[in-house]
Amino acid sequence: MITIKSFAFNPFSENTYVVFNANKKAFLIDPGNFSAEETRTLNEFVAENKLKVQNILLTHAHIDHVLGLQKAFDEYEVPVLMHQTEKEILDRNPMDANRFGFFFKPFDGEIHYVKETEILKLDKDEFEILHVPGHSPGHIAFHNAAEKLVISGDVLFEGSIGRTDLYKGNSEELLSSIKTKLFILDEDTKVYNGHGNPTTIGFEKKHNPFF
Contact at 8 Å (CB) between 58 and 65? Predict the structure, then answer.
């Protein structure tokens, strides 16, 4: 049984997720905690629920999804898993932060690169990695078929799709990713996205205006 706790963090209202199983093993996904209060809220949830964070996962490395990455790495001392193609995006964050008017240090921590179709496990709970570029080149999603859920980052939203006007965004790639990687999933699959409310694959296939 998988439990998902979401937090809307930082000025971009980014969804940070803690995904954990009955044995209290957890993944921390897209740590966007920015303020000291947000960091305290996240760490207290993990501590109060006695969770053991196994890895920090990144759907992608746009700055709103990694504002708390260094803090999370320093706190939990576990590797960060991401797609290798996304490293360039991660490395651009100090420059992007400067554009928004604040200072952001380059990430200094252990990174492991993962590929499509690899399986990440919390005990017997399996998450398949789906490469879904378009919003960013190394964007990935984490799909648990048994629980009918996918953590999709900024690819598919309730009634919308991810923006493609950012560095190395590609609208054709994004639409293809959704059609060939997400829309083939069970229609009951719940979609936990990077901003806003969860949705389902079936609802978006029927009602999303981009399709």
Answer: yes
The predicted pLDDT at position 54 comes to: 98
Quote the number of domains for the chain.
1
Residues in the chain: 211
Q: Cα-Cα-Cα-Cα dihedral of 206, 171, 90, 102, to 10°?
A: -90
How many CB atoms lie under 10 A from the CB of residue 168?
17
Which residues, listed in sequence order, are joined to residue 150 by a DSSP beta bridge? 143, 191
Parent domain of 196 = 3-207
Q: Which residues have a Cβ under 8 Å from the Cβ of 195 and sit 6 or more positions away?
A: 12, 13, 14, 15, 154, 157
**Two tokens at 157?**
């939203």
Phi, psi (rounded to 5 degrees) for 148: 55, 60
Give percent helix, percent strand, percent coil of the chain, each to the nearest 5. 30, 30, 40
Block means of pLDDT (10 residues each) for the chain, length 211 residues?
Answer: 97 98 98 98 98 98 98 98 98 93 94 97 97 98 98 98 97 98 98 98 98 95
pTM of the model: 0.97
Instruction: Return the CA Rg of the chain.
Output: 16
CATH number of the domain to which 22 belongs: 3.60.15.10
pLDDT of residue 100: 87
CA 122 to CA 21: how far, in whole Å?
Answer: 7
